[in-house]
Design goal:
The chain is of the alpha/beta class. The protein is 45% helix and 14% strand. It contains nine helices and seven strands.
């Protein structure tokens, strides 16, 4: 666990724990890529941001809690630590996810189950635990990070696509179940994003991917973060059960 340093201390000072403008925000998998961009966007707005991570050294500037979301007990302990330091989670961004790509005939049952356990069941674990505080407060914002692959499909990613598609039904069911408690559930479906993972592709692969995108480029992580931040804002108070693609037009019509 790391408490973060300068930036975190600054926000604690300016937007103390009792400041109603400073919300308790949790971003799972917030240590890199899209998750880190989302965490930074909320921190820059003055929110108290906690992130979960599984391995490595977390970035400075946040309340970083080591947590494997496939383990219910670790999820419980992470929430206890966050609640003690930031108060009950008011905004949850379920971003943590994994891939284990393989063609169906070569995909093991373990690889299929592992991806669903993190991406779908792991999301269930963190959302269920967050709702404890949201129900008491009679308000909350939950944003699930899906993928254009969950809507469009992708050869070699049956497990990943199934897990990300499942988030849509999950969010919409909870939007109906908990809307009367002023808790919103929305889904953001990114397309191809310029992260370390995509930077590792060959130039030929990158060109092939971009050729499928009507806008002709990769998304920047900050563009995904801006959409998530909007869904957690007062301007989105009447939006729930929505699936918002941020994919340059790749998945339009799905």
């Amino acid at each position: 666990m790391a408490d973060g340093t300068d930036r975190f201390s600054t926000y604690q000072t300016v937007h103390g724990k009792g400041d109603p403008l400073s919300r308790s925000v949790l971003v799972t998998g917030g240590n890199r890529g899209i998750g880190l961009a989302i965490a930074r966007a909320f921190a820059e707005a003055g929110d108290k941001v906690a992130i979960t991570y599984r391995s490595g050294e977390p970035p400075a500037g946040f309340l970083a809690v080591k947590c494997d979301i496939t383990d219910t007990e670790q999820v419980e302990q992470a929430y206890k630590e966050i609640e003690e330091k930031h108060g009950p989670v008011e905004v949850l961004v379920a971003n943590a996810g994994v891939t284990k790509d393989q063609l169906l005939m070569r995909m093991s049952e373990e690889d299929f189950s592992a991806v669903l356990d993190t991406n779908l069941t792991g999301t269930f674990r963190v959302v269920k635990r967050a709702n404890r505080g949201m129900l008491r407060a009679k308000k909350g914002r939950v944003v699930l990070i899906s993928s254009v692959v969950g809507l469009l499909g992708s050869a070699g990613q049956a497990n990943y696509a199934a897990s990300k598609a499942g988030l849509v039904g999950f969010a919409r069911s909870l939007a109906r179940e908990l809307g009367s408690r002023n808790i919103t559930f929305n889904v953001v479906a990114p397309g191809f994003v310029d992260t370390d993972m995509t930077k590792a592709l060959t130039e030929e692969q990158r060109t092939s991917i971009v050729s499928q995108v009507p806008l002709g480029r990769y998304a920047q992580p900050e563009e995904i973060a801006a959409t998530v931040k909007f869904l957690a804002s007062d301007d989105a108070s009447y939006i729930t059960g929505a699936v918002i693609p941020v994919d340059g037009g790749l998945g339009m019509g799905h």
